[in-house]
Design a protein that fits this description.
The protein has 432 residues and is of the alpha/beta class. It folds into two domains: 211 residues, Enolpyruvate transferase domain (UDP-n-acetylglucosamine1-carboxyvinyl-transferase, Chain), CATH 3.65.10.10; 200 residues, Enolpyruvate transferase domain (UDP-n-acetylglucosamine1-carboxyvinyl-transferase, Chain), CATH 3.65.10.10. The chain has 13 helices and 25 strands. It has a four-stranded mixed β-sheet with strand order 2-17-19-18. The protein has a four-stranded mixed β-sheet with strand order 5-6-4-16, with helices on one face. Helix 1 packs parallel to helix 6, helix 4 runs parallel beside helix 5 and helix 10 packs parallel to helix 12. The radius of gyration is 21 Å and the shape is globular. The termini are close together. The structure holds shikimate-3-phosphate. The site of shikimate-3-phosphate has 11 residues, from helix 5.
Length: 432
C-alpha cells in the first residue's frame, strides 16, 4: 500500500469497527455458556474469524447475518473434539485464551498459527496451566502446541507479566475446574474477561489489595447467556485520533468508542501532550465504558511516560511514536520490553522505520527516545512491517504527514481493521 501526504485536513466521522479483544471474548464465553447469545457490532476481521472458526470446529452452532452473530452455547463441558487442528493465523489472543480453555476439556487438540504467531512465547500461558495439572506440549515454547485435556486442580497463581491474555486463559481454565481458583495479578491489564464473566453469572470475585488484583473463580458453575453489544475499538480509533492531531485543519468525530480505564493510556498520554480531544456522551454498555470522541489538530508537546502507563496502552506505542515525531520537544517512553513480543518486534520496527523516515530516535534498554524535527527527509520510503497490522497503520498515518511511504505487507491490516483504507480515504486520506 502507498500512503501519500495529504494537503487539507482530515474531516468527518470515520466508522471504527468493533473492539477486537471484546469480539474474541464475545465468541468464547457465549460458546461455553448455556443459552443463546446475540452479538451486535462484532469485529469481522481475520483474527476474530480464527476464534469463530475454532468454535465451529468444536461443534458450536454459530449463525452469522449482516448485523448480528448468534451463538448457541454448548455449556462448559460439551465442546466436541475439533475435526482438524485449530489454525489461529496471527492471533495471539486466540492462542493464549484457547490454550487455557482447552486445557480442561475432554479431548486432545492442536493449535497452530502463522509465522509470526509461531514465534511468540507460549510458555507464559502453558507454565501456569501446568501448575494446575494441565498436560500441554509446546514446540520449544512456541506453537504448534498439543493440549491433552485434563481434570485441572484449583490453585493460586501469581501473574507477574502484565498480560490480559495470560490472565484470561487462566480464568477460562478455572471456570471448568472444581473448587476455588485464585489468580493474582501484579500489574493492571485489560479487564474485559472479568467484566463479561460477571455478566454471564460466573461465580467470580474481585479484590484489590495494594497494587494487586485477586480474582477468585469458583469453578464448574454453568454460565448464563446474555446478549452483547460490542463497542468500537479504541486501539483502532487511535490511528485516526493521531492522524487528526498531526494534520492541520483536521476535525474528526468517532462514536461508541470503548474507553475502559484498564486500556485508555493512549488518551492519557495524548492529553498530557496537549491534544485537543473531547469525550462526549459518556455511558456504559454491558458494564464497559463508552463515549464519543472528538479530536482537533493540536500543537503537541513531547512527554516522558513511565512503565506504569505502558500496561494501559501496550498496543498504541507505534502510533504514539508517530505523534511524538510532530511534537515541539523530545519524548521518552519507558518500560517497553513487552513490545518485543507482539505481532512483530515492535520496538525494533518503530525505530527502523522512523529512521527510514528521517527521524532521530533510539532505544536504550527498554526505553524509546524520539527527537522531533520541523522537517523530515525520507531516507528510504519502504516501510518494513513484518506483517504487523499496527505498524502498517501507524506508518500510513506517518505518510499522510511526510509524503509517499510504501507500506510493505499491508494486507496484515485485515487482522484487525479491514475497512481502514476506506475509512481513512473517506475523511481525506490518500492511501492506495
Ligand atoms: C489482548 C491483550 C494484549 C494486547 C492484545 C490483545 C487481549 O496482549 O496486546 O492486542 O485481548 O487480551 P497481552 O495481554 O499479551 O499484553
Amino acid at each position: 500500500m502507498i500512503s501519500n501526504k495529504i494537503t487539507n485536513g482530515l474531516i468527518g466521522n470515520p466508522i471504527i469497527p468493533g473492539d477486537k479483544s471484546i469480539s474474541h471474548r464475545s465468541i468464547i464465553i457465549p460458546s461455553i455458556s448455556n443459552g443463546i447469545t446475540e452479538i451486535n457490532n462484532i469485529l469481522k476481521s481475520e483474527d476474530v474469524y480464527h476464534t469463530l472458526n475454532a468454535f465451529k470446529n468444536m461443534g458450536v452452532e454459530i449463525e452469522e447475518n449482516k448485523d448480528k452473530v448468534i451463538i448457541f452455547g454448548k455449556g462448559l463441558t460439551s465442546l466436541n473434539k475439533p475435526q482438524t487442528e485449530i489454525y489461529l493465523g496471527n492471533s495471539g489472543t486466540s492462542a493464549r485464551l484457547l490454550t487455557g480453555l482447552l486445557a480442561s476439556q475432554k479431548f486432545v487438540s492442536k493449535l497452530t498459527g502463522d509465522k509470526s504467531l509461531s514465534s511468540r512465547p507460549m510458555r507464559r500461558i502453558t507454565e501456569p496451566l501446568l501448575k494446575m495439572n494441565a498436560s500441554i506440549e509446546t514446540s520449544n515454547g512456541n506453537l504448534p502446541i498439543i493440549i491433552k485435556g485434563n481434570k485441572l486442580n484449583n490453585t493460586i497463581i501469581d501473574i507477574t507479566i502484565p498480560s490480559a491474555q495470560i490472565k484470561s486463559g487462566l480464568l477460562l481454565a478455572a471456570l471448568n475446574t472444581h473448587g476455588l481458583s485464585k489468580i493474582v495479578e501484579h500489574n493492571i491489564s485489560r479487564d474485559h474477561t472479568e467484566i463479561m464473566l460477571e455478566a454471564f453469572d460466573a461465580d467470580i470475585g474481585i479484590e484489590k489489595i495494594d497494587n494487586k488484583k485477586i480474582i477468585s473463580i469458583n469453578g464448574k458453575k454453568e454460565l448464563k447467556s446474555v446478549n452483547i453489544d460490542v463497542p468500537s475499538d479504541l486501539s483502532s480509533s487511535s490511528f485516526f485520533i493521531v492522524a487528526a492531531l498531526v494534520n492541520k485543519n483536521s476535525h474528526l468525530k468517532m462514536s461508541n468508542i470503548n474507553v475502559n480505564p484498564t486500556r485508555n493510556g493512549i488518551l492519557l498520554a495524548l492529553k498530557k501532550m496537549g491534544a485537543k480531544i473531547n469525550f462526549l456522551n459518556k455511558r456504559q454498555i454491558n458494564k464497559e465504558e463508552i463515549c464519543d470522541i472528538e479530536v482537533f489538530y493540536s500543537n503537541l508537546n513531547g512527554c516522558e511516560l513511565g512503565p506504569e502507563i505502558a500496561k494501559l496502552m501496550i498496543d498504541e506505542y507505534p502510533i504514539l511514536s508517530v505523534a511524538a515525531c510532530f511534537a515541539n520537544s523530545p519524548s521518552i517512553f519507558r518500560g517497553l520490553s513487552e513490545l518485543r513480543v507482539k505481532e512483530s518486534d515492535r520496538l525494533k520496527l518503530i525505530t527502523t522505520n522512523l529512521e527510514r523516515c528521517g527521524v532521530n530516535c533510539k532505544v536504550e534498554e527498554d526505553d524509546l527516545y524520539i527527537y522531533p524535527s520541523d522537517q523530515y527527509e525520507i531516507n528510504n520510503n519502504s516501510i518494513q512491517t513484518d506483517y504487523d497490522h499496527r505498524i502498517a497503520m501507524a506508518f500510513s498515518v506517518m505518510g499522510s504527514k511526510i509524503g509517499e511511504l510504501n507500506i510493505l505487507d499491508s494486507d496484515s491490516i485485515n487482522t484487525s481493521f479491514p475497512s481502514f483504507i476506506e475509512e481513512f480515504n473517506k475523511i481525506g486520506g490518500k492511501l492506495s
